[in-house]
Amino acid sequence: VQVAESGGGLVQAGGSLRLSCTASRFAFADYAIGWFRQVPGKAREAVSCISNEGRTYMADSMKARFTISGDNSRKTIYLDMNNLRPEDTAVYYCAAYEHPLGLMISRIVSNGCRGFDTWGQGTQVTVPS
Description:
Structural class: mainly beta
Shape: globular
Order of helices and strands: EEEEEEEEEHEE
Strand content: over 45%
Distance between the termini: 37 Å
Number of helices: 1
Radius of gyration: 14 Å
Largest sheet: 7 strands, mixed
């Protein structure tokens, strides 16, 4: 599996940004793709993820401002981030997970996007204070 991210950049506080991630070379029909972020010196945290069946997870602190969506035909997901804040500044990583059992996909999404094993290189999002 491979993932490719795009869409990071610098945006003023209150602005919006869309991140895109395309995954490829899945061996199985069931998969999930997600977004994570990391600030230097802090642990990586899950932002949101979505399964091929449309099951989603969004971190509580971002539910009011971020939206995740997916295009199964393109194996692409989008993270729309609105009303961005300086504390959203981070490297955002796309990740993917696949499994022959759809139940396992549902489980990792429901469990807060835990267990992803294929990672992109990350894209920087900067919101100046």
